Amino acid sequence: MALQESGEMYLETIYVLSLKSSAVRGIDIGEYMGYSKPSVSRALGVLKDEGLVKKDSDGYIKLTEAGKILAKRIYERHTVLTRALISLGVDEKTAAEDACRIEHYISDTTFDAVKKHVEEHTL
Fold this sequence. Notes:
CATH architecture of the largest domain: Orthogonal Bundle
Order of helices and strands: HHHEEHHH
Distance between the termini: 34 Å
Number of domains: 2
CATH superfamily of the largest domain: Winged helix-like DNA-binding domain superfamily/Winged helix DNA-binding domain
Shape: elongated
Low-confidence stretches: none
Number of strands: 2
Structural class: mainly alpha
Mean pLDDT: 91
């Protein structure tokens, strides 16, 4: 499944918010990402159609199993790439911003090599 960068960003946001609270709402996603309610609604509709998110009986947004797997992968890429850039001397804010851009385009092969390097050479 080839999800667009914006879809990946939504999945990652839902995952990050769900680590903090089991009750994730569309308004929470919009506030976190700085997007309007209609934009969030459209994106959630697409993710729901793709089978990546669902709403529970209380209206809270949950990742499906497939959504959780994909979101975890995206989040791992973000955290590993951020650590890699920081280890190269990039400040934390810039490293996180650049990792956010890179995570959507880096190949699995290259990411696996970066991850291995980070695991072997950083704390």
